[in-house]
Amino acid sequence: MQTKVWACGSIYKAVFEKIPEQKNLQNFALTKIHGEIVGMSGSYTEICYFTRDNKFHCYALQNKTSRNFDGFLFEDPEQDPISHVTSGFHHHCILTKSGRAFGWGESSSYSLGRTFGSHWDKPKELLFFSKNNLKVVDASGAEFQTILLCDNGKLFGFGNTSSKRLVPNQETIVDKNYLLKANKDYGDTPILLSDNVIMIGHGQTSRHHIYMTSDYTLWAMGENPLVESGTRYSKDGNTCKKIKVPFNKKNIKQIGTGYDSSIILLNKEENCEIYSCGYTHAGQTSNTNTFKKITFFNDKRIKQLYSGCYHTLAISDENKIYAIGKISQGNFFEIKVPQRRSYENLVVASGVYFGLCYTTQSSSLIQDFQNFLQSEAFSDITISNCKTHKAILKFRLNSDIDKISKILNNYTQEEVKKFLKWVYYDSIEDTQLLEKILHDKFGIGNYKQKTLENDLLQLYKDEESKDFNLLVLNDDVGEDEEEEEEEEEENFEEIPVHKFILLVRSGLFREMFKNVNQETNDVKDYSRKTIESIEILIKFLYTGNISLTADDDPELIVEELDDAKEYYQLNPNSSIEQELIKIKKSLK
User: Fold this and answer.
1) Fewer beta carbons within 10 Å, N or C terminal of the chain?
2) Positions of E strands within 230-319
3) What distances in angstroms separate CA 344 from CA 306, 421, 425, 435, 531, one per listed residue?
């Protein structure tokens, strides 16, 4: 699996002074990408991310190595997985699955509390929340503040209040006398901003905050509160103010907050709509004092927004990336990810003045399983209206098909679709759903270690479960004998294999099995390759790697496999080419 981080915008000015702002994504070489990135964020001078193995990393852009960090939040990596990371101008906030909150970076203006007024050597927990049994479910950094939403609807804020950017909402705070006293053991007490909050806006450098309460009222506080009176830019932040919008607030999916502007994504049944408002510096909004629709996005099917200081990145359900704002100088355009079609996973984030994109280039093995699921070819069972394959389900879930079918039929079609993506190619779209099914229903605990590639390696070693035989013609068979209508069985040698491996990985066998009885448990191979070469090829179909023994003739193997990839119609992106190049180099 190959991984890359791409960047656009002023990130290059932070790293290389003479390189101008980039409008398209360029390959941005982090010193090292530690594992598969799951979540990512950027501040003014740092990039931070967490990986699938639950490690947190922070990378300074201006050679300030004291701001680098690479490690786990806990001694036991599985103790409490990281769920979210958000950034402000110079600080970051990390949330875990259990609802704990951690801080990292420079806490300018006490954006993470007074005791966090300077940089520290590793992330520290914001103990106020755990001490008071508060579970943090969402957070957003800002220029010099951090707001944190708890699962009970309480919204808290850290930061300097002299600019009126953090203002308690007297209309929504249920308990007027609510006050948690500061305790020197866990630092400064955050401000209770509101009760009954169900959604908050996100933005690294916003000078205002927007949130929505359970009655679907939008509230703004700060230097640019976007009030319904029509004031485009106002420092009157003494009170929280309601926001008037020209759409049904129940359809709001996401809120983004820029420096002096805001953008809102609506979730419609067949499409989406995006509205913006505020003072524009580079065309990132409609430059009005009321929310106006951005018609450019009408047919783009946007699923996620990432707001920076003067720009917003918008991601479509086809994983296309669109930009508006300073990166595009006020123009709307699609950011091209190099070789995007070959990428399986996409993680996007905005820094203060730049955009980030992390891509995972899947192996041909993963691609083959993904294509096999999407094609629905040779499916032999339907679960919740989803066509799938018994053999792959049994192999991945280590269970009999009756149990699997009974369990999965209790879930909706959309839920099963998401789950099957993990079964076939390790894609995780809904962590909670995946954990619920795997752990609670099938007793599979650590799904992060249970990858398709690891499972296939174990499957290759399991000779007893192989349900099919590839009959390979022996080397000593002459051409005359080969052309006879009926060959003697002793002229063929059996190579055990799993039938679904041949179907998933080889176009030749997919075509072949369309014309043979599905109950057939063997097939004759006429490729005229040696048994040694075929055995190596079969192992490659399971593992994606070619390994030779001391008894193998490398020159012959390379020659035969070079031809076999065409004969067996392997994936054009197959890594067999790279594997053969390695062997050729070793021969030289």
Assistant:
1) C
2) 241-242, 252-257, 261-267, 272-278, 292-293, 302-307, 311-316
3) 20, 11, 9, 21, 34
Give residue for tokens 């360029």. 26
Q: Are 453 and 365 in contact (CB under 8 A)?
A: yes
Count the helices and strands in the chain (H runs, E runs).
Answer: 15, 33
Place of tokens 């594997």: 579
Hey, which residues does 489 pair with through a beta bridge? none
Give the DSSP letter string of 277-298. EE--SSSSS--SSS-EE-GGGT
Cβ pair 149, 136 in contact under 8 A: yes
Alpha-carbon distance 224 to 236, whole Å?
Answer: 8
Q: For the chain, 588 residues long, give each residue's pLDDT as a single digit of tens.
A: 455 555 555 443 333 222 334 444 444 444 455 567 778 888 887 888 888 778 888 877 665 555 677 777 877 766 788 889 998 888 889 999 899 999 888 776 778 876 655 666 678 888 889 988 999 999 998 888 899 999 999 999 988 665 667 888 888 888 765 555 444 444 577 889 999 999 999 988 788 899 999 999 999 888 755 544 333 444 555 568 888 889 999 999 999 988 888 889 998 666 788 888 877 554 445 556 778 888 888 888 888 888 888 788 888 877 777 877 765 444 444 555 444 434 456 677 777 766 666 666 567 788 889 889 988 889 999 999 999 999 999 999 999 999 999 999 999 999 999 999 999 988 877 778 888 899 889 988 777 778 898 899 999 999 999 999 999 887 654 455 445 545 444 588 999 999 999 999 999 999 888 877 777 888 888 888 899 999 999 999 998 888 888 888 888 888 888 888 889 998 876 778 777 777 877 776
Contacts for 203 with CB less than 8 Å, ≥ 6 apart: 140, 141, 142, 256, 257, 258, 307, 308
Instruction: Give the global pTM.
Output: 0.65
Residue with tokens 């209790």: 410
123-127: long-range contacts at Cβ-Cβ below 8 A with a sequence spacing of 24 or more? 123/56, 123/69, 123/73, 123/94, 125/100, 125/101, 126/93, 126/101, 126/102, 126/158, 126/186, 126/187, 127/185, 127/186, 127/187
User: What are φ and ψ of residue 376, in 5° steps?
Assistant: 60, 15
Q: Angle formed by the axes of helices 452-461 and 531-543, to 10°?
A: 150
